[in-house]
Amino acid sequence: MDYTHFFTEKKEVKVGIIGATKGYGLTVLSQIKNVEKIKLRAISSRSIEDCRNILLEMGYPNEKIKELNNIEEISNLNDDDIVITTDYKILIQSGITSFIECTGNVELGLSASEFALKNNINVYMVSKETDSVCGPYLNKLASDNNTVYSLVNGDQPRNAIDLYSWAKINGFKVIAIGKSSEYDFVWDRENGKITYTDGSEKFEDMPEMLKYWRYEGIKTLNGRKKLLKDYINIISADLCEMNLVSNITGFKASDKYLNYPIIKTSELADVLIPEKDGGILKDTNVVDVFFQLREKDEASFAGGVFVIVECQNEKSWDMMRSKGHIVSKNGKYACLYNPFHIMGLETPISILLGDIKGIGTHKECKQVSVMAAYADKNFNKGDILRVSGHHHSIDGVIPALLEVSEARDVAPFYLLNGMKLKNDIKKGDYIKIQDVDLSEKPSYKAYLKGLNIN
Fold it and tell me: Alpha helices, DSSP H only, in 341-419?
């Protein structure tokens, strides 16, 4: 698509960002300044000074930055003023057309998004934790209010959904959708050392990897897994992102913990295919995640996204193979992929698609999968669960992605933040709704409404 000829309307797009001073929100804020068709109207954070400082750092003039503490002050604004506030209701009523939610806080994200949609403001959801619980409800609310609720390009769920929709429209039969996990295993053939690129700068001597470097079937995967067992874990953020993709596409989890094979990009079409054809999938129409294995001078998949498609014409795919595309050895499957997700730097396109073209709301979104919490240790009654860390995980808990039919009595993972356990939980048990008091949580009520969407 030639986007330069797609947005011909002269509609003015004005955005407000909550959670704009760090992380994903910061990258959105930095890029919007470069986009001709989008104007920044307001940002919100817990710290007014952080808001002011980040805007000044990005070159916005101090005299145009207006701190607002109550709704009445909005009437004093000029058209080109930029609002800073700690109150999302002020931000939403400050003259924006687009609300970008970047807090990662489920309750705040839900409350602010509801308020925006009911006030005819389009919502662009960055907080995957909120969407994993409330996405079906918020999509329905947007549809009912003739507004847009949208995941955003720059994070893997929207990128994966876009690639899947592109493949589907082009007539491909997609059997799997997925992404690479955030960090790679990088092997240096010259000295036999392997590095896990999590920023720790640690490496380990592993000359034995040479034995498993060339893919020769399941035994290769098992060998790699055994060598790298101390580095492998199930990452909450990965399962959450695949939860979002599942709820919109209808694809289910390949396994409740996903498969996480350790593979090279070139092996995707040989591994993430049905078992009957030599792969590891027990079913098709699934979502999955892999750990990338590569040499030090090879490009990273960079948390990018892929689809596995069936090869429907042998001659066509023989031609594709000759051009360097990833086709399985048996010629039955191919991998199509986008090896990047550059966070807020590519989010403006989602805002333009939503505000100018009305594209974003997925009326078909429903709770296909539920992210559950599986106890990896014994918990006592009275223990308080906390979501924390870079991957938004819960200490002592393993995330699992269940089909909604087997998760009716299970407490969704991101509703457990701050919850006190009403019962003892044994290692190996799921934390259930009856084990916590969710009755006063608006997000739980939204989740229940989402479960009733057919």
Answer: 348-357
What is the number of other CB atoms lying within 10 angstroms of the CB of residue 284?
16
Give the separation between CA 431 and CA 417, rounded to whole angstroms.
12
Place of tokens 């989402």: 450
Q: How many residues does the chain have?
A: 454
- Average pLDDT across the chain, whole number: 95
pLDDT value of residue 201: 77
Task: Quickly state the pLDDT bin for 305 (edges 50, 70, 90).
Answer: very high
Distance of CA 166 to the CA centre of its chain: 18
DSSP string, 279-335: SSBSSSSEEEEEEEEEETTSPP-TT-EEEEEE---HHHHHHHHHTT-EE-TTSSEEE
Task: Give the DSSP per-residue string, 254-290.
Answer: SSTT----EE-GGGHHHHSSBGGGTSSBSSSSEEEEE
Smallest CA-to-CA distance from 406 within 288, 302, 245, 253 is with 253
Q: How far is CA 432 from the centre of its chain?
A: 24
Summarised one tens digit per residue, pLDDT across range 166-210 is 999 999 999 999 999 989 999 999 999 999 999 887 899 999 999
pLDDT at residue 366 tops 80: yes
Q: What pLDDT, in 10s, does the model give residues 244-262?
A: 999 999 999 999 999 999 9
Q: For residue 390, which amino acid is it?
A: H
The Cβ of residue 11 has, within 10 Å, a number of other Cβ atoms equal to 12
